[in-house]
C-alpha cells in the first residue's frame, strides 16, 4: 500500500442508456421504436414473408412523439432495433415566463397551449404531464386540480 492520494474523476452519467435493443419481429403496434434517430410510437406494423434472400421484413409506420411527423422504416424481423426509453412525469405548473421557456418549453400543439395559458390565467392549480425520451422533453397533457 502507498501513501499516495488517489482521485477519480467521473465523467459519465448514471449509466442509463437512452435506448435498448429489441428484435424487430417482437415490436408491436402502440409500442415505441427509434426510426431515423427519432423516438416514435408505432402506429402500424406489417410483416412480409421470407423471400429468396431469407429474411422476413417488418414495415414500421411510426409517429415522432415530439413533432408528430409520420416516419416509416423497413427492417429484417430477425435484426435488432433501438427502442427508446420513454418516461412520463407529472409536475405542478408554478409560472409561465414571457418567452414561453424557463425549465420547460410550452407545447407547440395549439389546443393544449391554449388550455394551459387560460387555466394559468384563471389562477387554477394545474398539473402538466411531461414526456421525456432520448434527451428531449415536452408537455403532453394537462390536469386541472381546481382553484389555488
Task: Describe the protein's architecture and organization.
The structure is a single chain. The termini are far apart. The protein has one helix and nine strands, in the order βββββββαββ. It is elongated, with a radius of gyration of 21 Å. With 148 residues, it is mainly β. It has two domains: 19-84, Roll (SH3 type barrels); 86-147, Nucleic acid-binding proteins (OB fold (Dihydrolipoamide Acetyltransferase, E2P), Beta Barrel). The mean pLDDT is 86. A four-stranded antiparallel β-sheet has the order 2-3-4-5, with no helix packed on it. The protein has a three-stranded antiparallel β-sheet with strand order 7-8-9. Strands 1-6 form a two-stranded antiparallel ribbon. It has one helix at residues 110-121; strands at 19-23, 32-35, 38-47, 57-64, 70-76, 80-84, 86-92, 124-133, 136-147. Belongs to the eIF-5A family. One of its GO terms (biological process) is positive regulation of translational termination. Residues 1-21 are annotated as: Disordered. Residues 85-143 form the Translation initiation factor 5A C-terminal domain.
Main features:
OB fold (Dihydrolipoamide Acetyltransferase, E2P), Eukaryotic translation initiation factor 5A, mainly beta, 148 residues, SH3 type barrels, elongated
Shape: elongated
Strands in their spatial order, largest beta sheet: 2-3-4-5
Q: How many distinct domains?
A: 2
Q: What is the succession of H and E elements?
A: EEEEEEEHEE
How many angstroms does the end-to-end distance come to? 62 Å
Number of helices: 1
Protein name: Eukaryotic translation initiation factor 5A
Pfam families: eIF-5a (PF01287), IF5A-like_N (PF21485)
InterPro entries: IF5A-like (IPR001884), IF5A-like_N (IPR048670), IF5A_C (IPR020189), NA-bd_OB-fold (IPR012340), Rib_uL2_dom2 (IPR014722), Trans_elong_IF5A_hypusine_site (IPR019769), Translation_prot_SH3-like_sf (IPR008991)
GO molecular function: ribosome binding; RNA binding; translation elongation factor activity; translation initiation factor activity
Amino acid at each position: 500500500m502507498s501513501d499516495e492520494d488517489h482521485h477519480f474523476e467521473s465523467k459519465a452519467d448514471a449509466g442509463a442508456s437512452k435506448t435498448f435493443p429489441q428484435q424487430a419481429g417482437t415490436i408491436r403496434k402502440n409500442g415505441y421504436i427509434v426510426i431515423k434517430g427519432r423516438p416514435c410510437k408505432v402506429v402500424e406494423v406489417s410483416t412480409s414473408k421470407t423471400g429468396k434472400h431469407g429474411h422476413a421484413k417488418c414495415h414500421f409506420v411510426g409517429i415522432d412523439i415530439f413533432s408528430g411527423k409520420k416516419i416509416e422504416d423497413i427492417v429484417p424481423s430477425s435484426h435488432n432495433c433501438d427502442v427508446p426509453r420513454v418516461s412520463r412525469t407529472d409536475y405542478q405548473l408554478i409560472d409561465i415566463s414571457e418567452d414561453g421557456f424557463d425549465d420547460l418549453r410550452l407545447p407547440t400543439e395549439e389546443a393544449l397551449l391554449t388550455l394551459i395559458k387560460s387555466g394559468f390565467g384563471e389562477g387554477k392549480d394545474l398539473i402538466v404531464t411531461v414526456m421525456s425520451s432520448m434527451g428531449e422533453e415536452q408537455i403532453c397533457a394537462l390536469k386541472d386540480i381546481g382553484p389555488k
